[in-house]
């Protein structure tokens, strides 16, 4: 009973003004969440996958909260960092808008559909499939040393539009339905199917990710599935991490993004393997 009272006290604090959240008993958990948000923003700005850091942090800190509320809080906190990264990339990198915008529009529409589909299809069914796809992506990237090294767009005209729409729709549905690792999958797909280098792929992925996050928030926020004060505090830290990550990606280029992509993808494989074995 005491644990339940503590959990509800924490939730009330995270819904309240900032002065209440500075209660000394809540500061350690609040600091943990803010540090997690900063690190998630850093990783997400470079290769995606920030949700793999931010969501578990929220789940462990507020274990009795509804998962949908934590997902909504995560989306609101992360979208600001993603917007910051997209803006900074757009200022320094020649953005492939003819591919990115159709993909973002399709992703926006399908992300909302994916969020709604959670109600009738358990997301855990996707874990083995995602694990297999991640393994293939890492093997492909590791074996081809020149993969994503040069920016050579592979499509144009109607074919470019068709590929972008299909790619955006699939990844948008995935992000709304399941979510973790969306940015990393986007980067790999932009490199593999569009001939982008890792830097341009990361830049394009941020724009598409903003669209999917907006669609998901359109589902979570009206339903009350978010903790406003906590989300905004985490958003500030997410922006800080995003600024550092984008700066390093722009400074060191595709080689840096490729190395971090492989590192994050391997961690995602380990995480999904553990979850799959643990839940089976």
Describe the structure.
With 280 residues, the chain is mostly helical. The protein contains eleven helices and no strands. α4 (51-61) packs antiparallel against α5 (67-92), α5 (67-92) packs across α11 and α6 packs parallel to α10 (198-220). The radius of gyration is 18 Å and the shape is globular. Residues 1-9 have low confidence and may be disordered.
Enumerate the spans where pLDDT stays under 50 for 5 or more consecutive residues.
Answer: 1-9
How many structural domains are formed by the residues? 1
Largest sheet: none
Q: Helix segment count? A: 11
Query: What gross morphology would you assign?
Result: globular
Strand tally: 0
Radius of gyration: 18 Å
Helix content: over 70%
Briefly note the structural class of the backbone. mainly alpha
- The average pLDDT is 84
What percentage of amino acids are in beta strands?
under 5%
State the distance separating the first and last CA atoms.
31 Å
Name the quaternary structure.
Answer: single chain
N-to-C order of helices and strands = HHHHHHHHHHH
Summary keywords:
280 residues, 11 helices, mainly alpha, disordered N terminus
């Amino acid at each position: 009973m005491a644990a339940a009272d503590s959990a509800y006290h924490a939730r009330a604090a995270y819904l309240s003004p900032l002065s209440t959240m500075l209660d000394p008993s809540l500061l350690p958990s609040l600091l943990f969440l803010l540090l997690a948000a900063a690190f998630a923003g850093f990783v997400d700005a470079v290769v995606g996958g920030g949700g793999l850091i931010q969501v578990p942090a929220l789940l462990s800190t507020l274990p009795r909260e509804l998962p949908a509320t934590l997902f909504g809080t995560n989306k609101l906190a992360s979208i600001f960092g993603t917007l910051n990264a997209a803006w900074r990339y757009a200022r320094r990198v020649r953005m492939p808008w003819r591919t990115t915008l159709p993909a973002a529009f399709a992703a926006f529409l399908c992300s909302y559909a994916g969020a709604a589909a959670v109600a009738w299809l358990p997301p855990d069914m996707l874990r083995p499939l995602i694990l297999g796809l991640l393994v293939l992506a890492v093997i492909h990237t590791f074996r081809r040393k020149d993969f994503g090294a040069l920016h050579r767009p592979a499509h144009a005209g109607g074919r470019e539009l068709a590929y972008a729409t299909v790619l955006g729709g699939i990844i948008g549905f995935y992000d709304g339905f399941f979510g973790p690792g969306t940015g990393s999958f986007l980067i790999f797909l932009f490199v593999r199917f569009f001939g982008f280098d890792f830097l341009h792929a990361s830049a394009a992925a941020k724009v598409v990710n903003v669209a999917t996050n907006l669609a998901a928030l359109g589902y979570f926020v009206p339903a009350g599935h978010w903790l406003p004060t906590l989300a905004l505090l985490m958003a500030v830290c997410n922006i800080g991490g995003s600024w550092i990550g984008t700066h390093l990606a722009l400074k060191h280029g595709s080689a840096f993004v490729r190395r971090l992509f492989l590192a994050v993808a391997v961690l995602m494989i380990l995480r999904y393997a553990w979850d799959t074995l643990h839940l089976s």
